[in-house]
């Protein structure tokens, strides 16, 4: 069982679990069977069934986490292809992202108060709508629990991936730029994966929204937290 104590174990089972998730998703063609949800479930079942400590798994799992930052940067490629479209819609896009970030932070703050959550839990939830690499750092900065923040961030992304396009249809949002900005601002990289399936413009605008929303939230979350408190 010495192989369990090597990074290869966590890395390999993460890849295998995600591939199984992709296979099931392609076969069912149902958004609810998101590959990430399936992979998380499979890994949890494996660790619990064989009594494997999370720290052992994370020796390899952390290798994948390391690539979150570079993967986010690569999303700039589709944006570059749509640079002319961005120039013509720059102000509306920026305003939309700012409003989205503000709404995300303020709504979490007041809902946390409504449901009587502790201050630590509340601050851990505030940066949930930005990509994990950024949300962890914001959580540390404002006194949250980074591990909890990552979990909620992933859940937020999956939710956006699964229902984002349906919400846009429900409210008759047909504009490609608006759809992309909404999904990227609300559900970061996981939502962007869905936006890219919808179209190149949606994917590009969603990619932009991730970066800008992360930058805005870094400054906005601590300031709004102090102001509202």
From TrEMBL:
The chain crosses the membrane at residues 6-24, 31-50, 62-80, 92-112, 145-168, 204-225. The keyword Flavoprotein does not apply. It is found in: Membrane. InterPro entries: CidB/LrgB (IPR007300). The keyword rRNA-binding does not apply. It is a multi-pass membrane protein. Its main location: membrane. Keywords: Membrane, Transmembrane, Transmembrane helix. This is LrgB family protein. The lineage of its organism: Bacteria, Bacillati, Bacillota, Tissierellia, Tissierellales.
